């Protein structure tokens, strides 16, 4: 039985991801770790319209009948939980960030908020698709150091202690990429206002 | 972790002093141990595992005191002033580390050592002096006569031995330690304390009055450019956070008094209530408006939460929130001046303020309920001074109080009235109003403690985000993460208040910059998990079991009668089951072999039949 407070968090974050344009109707995925259990979105459910039966609970280490219903991203989420301190994961498809990921190996924010919160977001390429061990291990390795990473052409994976926190990093990244896009469109020389910003690349 | 280090961060040496024989040795620090356990609490626990087994009486010469700095200590990184002492606790019998700020830890590291192990017992009172010699790499270490210092109070002996914040620093015990009070603290820099669990009694049992340090060594930093960047970013974050830039400097740690009271989680009159009608009068705001003289800071700290307060009778550091609560709400007292004076006295006598205040509160309830024939009653702040003096010198009833609330309450026939876990008095958060905090107390390796992780951030302050304080499902995950993070911070060693404005990912990068070893955030949290599991193994080896992971019956059975937490008891059992599974421990709370292998704790398991 999943605590109704946990269900409410899923509903709120799921709806915000859809309303914020960060996912398509059936895209994205969110989960939380509860001790040795994982609660994750049901396969095919819409994050923007979650109902109680759309939350699937299964073991972190052990399979049970829940895996038959869980999202195809379950392996990635489990691997991240086992290899990092994450207690919540938000995976979505932020459009502007995805566009930047197509041409960069890292996204270094130029706006103040994301510089402050993120410093630098690495971009990784994985030829194997969602749900494969290859992708899961690569993501987990990156998330040992970074709280949010971009999978090139796919989307973001963000971790936190709560869904709220992981969503915070996600929305910050997308906002930052939108600002960077506008700056490119304005196409005027950049005036550096951040002391020691050259060190962001070492982050 | 990957990389190569040549004593960047670490000094690379351990000082080993045997007070029985007078032998003084300098030993190399094992690089693998340093990588796995860092310093401070981690390194101390690792050494303690080898040094002090279950046959050792904590107050015998076979117990050791391990003073340890960390790889960040004295580097100049924000709050890199701290250090710890590890020993077997004479109060609880568990593994113990106590942690302190000020200047002594920084100065000790500058003497050129990462750790000091003190073993044996001197025949007569002595003190240890560590000074630079003409050759910086070989400090001058001596064991000196302290017969004229024995009996002196903390402030007097600190001054006598030449305390000078930035150049020469004194660590010592007061009368409580000399008289083997099991709640005696070790004091440094006059008014800072390694307080919990009775390390002062261990020092007293060794006839060791003080340790004086001077140093000229400076830790090497491998990547200066990255280190400077991290200093800059950390300063920005600490200045941006209202907690670290406004709340703590303006009101001190007691800034949380009203917040905790408002949600019905401020233990009152020995945990009989969860809200105190006098909270406002003893809050951080009240202290600032009345007795505060000025703020002070530890070395390299931009936060400055330390209070310097003054009443008609005394002037000194403190009181902290926990102290204010222990002599305030917990004793049913709203006289702030009396709290300041009790704090001053505890510091001078060398006594843990939380345990002292809470033990007096326990005695007050014992007296009110007829178990104990004494004048002590809730609200009788006028009896604090005499009672504390009697405790430190073991006079009359004070002799019973000197060994903490559990021994006191047991002696007078009501052990259930000791508000303690594993014998250590609980701090200032009622587990009935903060469910995660209850699990944290119950599973804390040194007994009930708010510094072995704290759910205040998540359950009250919203750091990093607010979670429901009454939620039970999933709470173990948060508790485990914060226990591990706390053990990591205690091993670096820095102040936990930096973590209120600066996330763990910064600490990983600072440590990487200092040592040249690449630590990911996950690596660093795993260090904390390794330390926590080794502490658990230590306690199991001492005979502790899952039965000891509990709370006083009052918190499990007596629902809060009024206020925002009305109707709640601690729902410990389901949280505890989830906790063991999530930790990778079996149903008896024993770490599974797979977990130990994962944490590189090979060889630390022991025959299962030893577990009770």
Characterise the protein shown here.
The complex is a heterodimer of chains A (203) and B (612). Chain A is α+β, with helices and mostly antiparallel strands. Chain A has helices at residues 4-19, 74-83, 95-101, 112-117, 133-142, 163-186; strands at 29-34, 37-41, 55-59, 88-92, 106-107, 121-124, 148-151, 155-160. An eight-stranded mixed β-sheet of chain A has the order 3-2-1-4-8-7-6-5, with helices on both faces. In chain A, helix 2 runs parallel beside helix 5 (133-142) and helix 3 (95-101) crosses helix 6. Chain A is globular. The N and C termini of chain A lie far apart (41 Å). In chain A, 44% of the residues are buried. In chain B, a hairpin with an 8-residue loop joins strand 8 and strand 9. Chain B has a six-stranded mixed β-sheet. In chain B, strands 9-8-13-10-11-12 form a six-stranded mixed β-sheet. The two termini of chain B are 36 Å apart. By secondary structure, chain B is of the alpha+beta class. The chains are: A alpha+beta (203), B alpha+beta (612). Chains A and B meet through strand 1 and helix 6 of A and helix 7, helix 19, helix 20, helix 21 and helix 23 of B.
């Amino acid at each position: 039985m999943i605590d109704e407070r946990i269900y409410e968090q899923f509903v709120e974050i799921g709806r915000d991801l859809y309303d914020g344009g960060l996912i398509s109707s059936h895209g994205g995925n969110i989960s939380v770790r509860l001790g040795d259990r994982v609660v994750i979105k049901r396969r095919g459910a819409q994050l923007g319209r979650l109902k109680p039966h759309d939350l699937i609970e299964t073991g972190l280490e052990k399979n049970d009948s829940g895996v038959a219903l869980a999202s195809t991203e379950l392996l990635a989420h489990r691997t991240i939980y086992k290899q990092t301190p994450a207690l919540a994961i938000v995976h979505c498809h932020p459009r502007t960030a995805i566009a930047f990921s197509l041409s960069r190996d890292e996204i270094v924010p130029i706006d103040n908020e994301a510089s402050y919160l993120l410093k630098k977001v690495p971009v990784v390429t994985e030829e194997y698709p969602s749900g494969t061990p290859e992708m899961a291990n690569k993501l987990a390795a990156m998330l040992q150091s970074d709280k949010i990473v971009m999978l090139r052409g796919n989307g973001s994976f963000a971790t936190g202690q709560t869904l709220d926190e992981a969503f915070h990093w996600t929305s910050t990244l997308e906002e930052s990429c939108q600002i960077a896009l506008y700056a490119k469109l304005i196409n005027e020389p950049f005036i550096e206002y951040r002391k020691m910003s050259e060190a962001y690349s070492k982050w | 972790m990957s990389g190569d280090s040549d004593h960047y961060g670490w000094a690379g040496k351990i000082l080993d002093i045997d007070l029985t024989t007078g032998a003084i040795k300098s030993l190399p620090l094992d690089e693998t141990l340093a990588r796995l356990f860092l310093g401070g609490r981690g390194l101390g626990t690792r050494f303690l595992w080898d040094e002090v087994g279950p046959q050792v009486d904590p107050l015998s010469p076979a117990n050791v005191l391990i003073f340890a700095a960390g790889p960040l200590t004295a580097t100049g990184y924000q709050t890199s002033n701290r250090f710890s002492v590890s020993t077997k606790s004479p109060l609880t019998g568990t593994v113990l580390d106590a942690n302190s700020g000020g200047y002594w830890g920084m100065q000790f590291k500058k003497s050129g050592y990462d750790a000091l192990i003190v073993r044996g017992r001197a025949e007569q009172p002595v003190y240890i002096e560590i000074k630079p010699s003409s050759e910086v790499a070989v400090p001058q270490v001596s064991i000196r006569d302290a017969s004229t210092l024995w009996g002196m109070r903390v402030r007097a002996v600190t001054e006598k031995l030449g305390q000078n914040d930035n150049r020469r620093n004194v660590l010592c015990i007061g009368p409580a330690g000399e008289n083997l009070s099991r709640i005696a603290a070790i004091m440094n820099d006059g008014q800072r304390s390694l307080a919990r669990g009775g390390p002062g009694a261990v020092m007293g049992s060794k006839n060791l009055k003080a340790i004086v340090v001077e140093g000229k060594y400076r830790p090497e930093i491998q990547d200066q450019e990255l280190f400077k960047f991290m200093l800059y970013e950390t300063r920005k974050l600490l200045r941006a956070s209202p907690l670290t830039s406004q709340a703590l400097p303006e009101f001190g740690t007691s800034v949380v008094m009203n917040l905790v009271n408002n949600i019905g989680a401020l233990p009152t009159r020995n945990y009989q209530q969860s809200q105190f009608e006098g909270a406002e009068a003893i809050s951080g705001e009240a202290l600032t408006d009345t007795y505060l003289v000025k703020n002070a800071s530890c070395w390299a700290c931009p936060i400055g939460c330390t209070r310097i307060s003054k009443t008609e009778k005394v002037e000194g550091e403190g009181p902290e929130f926990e102290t204010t609560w222990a002599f305030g709400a917990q004793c049913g007292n709203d006289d702030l001046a009396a709290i300041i004076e009790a704090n001053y006295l505890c510091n001078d006598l060398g006594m843990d303020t939380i345990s002292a205040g809470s033990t007096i509160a326990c005695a007050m309830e014992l007296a009110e309920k007829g178990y104990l024939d004494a004048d002590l009653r809730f609200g009788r702040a006028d009896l604090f001074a005499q009672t504390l003096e009697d405790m430190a010198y073991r006079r009359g009833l004070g002799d019973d109080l000197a060994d903490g609330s559990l021994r006191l309450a047991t002696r007078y026939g009501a052990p259930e009235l000791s508000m303690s876990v594993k014998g250590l008095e609980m701090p200032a958060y009622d587990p009935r109003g903060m469910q995660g905090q209850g699990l944290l107390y119950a599973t804390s390796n040194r007994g009930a403690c708010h510094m072995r992780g704290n759910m205040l951030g998540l359950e009250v302050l919203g750091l990093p985000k607010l979670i429901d304080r009454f939620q039970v499902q999933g709470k173990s995950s948060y508790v485990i993460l914060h226990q591990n993070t706390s053990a990591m911070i205690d091993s670096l060693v820095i102040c936990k208040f930096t973590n209120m404005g600066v996330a763990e990912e910064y600490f990983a990068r600072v440590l990487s910059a200092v040592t040249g070893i690449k630590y990911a955030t996950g690596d660093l949290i795993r260090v904390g998990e390794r330390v926590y599991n080794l502490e658990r193994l230590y306690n199991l080896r001492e005979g502790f079991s899952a039965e000891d992971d509990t709370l006083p019956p009052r918190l499990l059975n007596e629902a809060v009668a009024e206020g925002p937490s009305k109707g709640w008891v601690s729902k410990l059992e389901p949280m505890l089951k989830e906790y063991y599974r999530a930790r990778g421990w079996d149903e008896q709370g024993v770490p599974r072999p797979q977990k130990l292998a994962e944490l590189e704790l090979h060889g630390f398991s022991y025959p299962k039949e030893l577990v009770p």
